[in-house]
Amino acid sequence: MRFACVGDNCIDIYQNKNTWYCGGNPVNVSVYVVRSGDAASYIGAVGTDNYGQFMLDSLTAHGVDVSHVKTLPGETAKTLINLVDGERVFCGYTEGVLADFRLTDDDMDYIAAHDIMVSSHWGNIHSQLPQIRARGVPIAFDFATKLGDDVFESAVDYVDYAFFSSDQDSPSTRDSLRSIYNRGVKLAVCTLGEHGSLVFDGAEFTHFGIVPCQVKDTMGAGDSYIAGFLRGILRHLPLEECMRTGAECSSITLQNFGAWG
Prior knowledge:
It is a single chain. This protein is α/β, with parallel strands linked by helices and 261 residues long. It has a single domain, classed as Ribokinase (UDP-N-acetylmuramoyl-L-alanine:D-glutamate ligase). The chain contains eight helices and 14 strands. It has an eight-stranded mixed β-sheet with strand order 4-1-9-10-11-12-13-14, with helices on both faces. It has a four-stranded mixed β-sheet with strand order 3-2-7-8. The chain has a two-stranded parallel sheet with strand order 5-6. Strand 9, helix 4 (129-134) and strand 10 (139-142) form a beta-alpha-beta unit. Helix 1 packs across helix 7 and helix 7 runs antiparallel to helix 8. The radius of gyration is 17 Å and the shape is globular.
């Protein structure tokens, strides 16, 4: 299986650890997919600074195809983070050259040669989803906690597998899943942190818990769940098995510092 992971990347700078790691939803998903045995390409933009080269070198070392990454004049995106008792605390974000990132027709043709495309709220490609959808490639999209904003409204009608995150399985969470499903997605998925995940398929809700592990850092946990879940979907596994695969992938990530080192 081949995943096209498209959109944002960033350098996660851990201020209270004086270190940094590569990150960004599509970047993380691409690495987790390769780690699990499938192929992945990352399509995005980095800057001409040292962080940009670090991102390219790191992805290449992990087996991700970066042939369609653009290097644009300026700074690579950065996220400032503090790690407190294993939980990430976001302290600031600089978008850098991602503000100018757009897909070309050649990029979209390249994406269509994959089995699925994965992107996210900060990827700056939401306005181009109709063109990608027209090429026939299934689309997965992570809306994070940003339901109902302009990106959501622009993107959701062109998405096959929609993801978002919440703290708990509540009536409002289930209402959100129903609402997203009614926009035409095949599956609406909510990751619930330590409470597992919840999926609505139009007929019923399915809940799955977690795979217990020693948590060092929650960074990338949701992205790794997405990677594992979608690998199961592409293999036509039963829904609960897809959720289990996502939880297993997430448990590996949780035991390391940074999204993937």
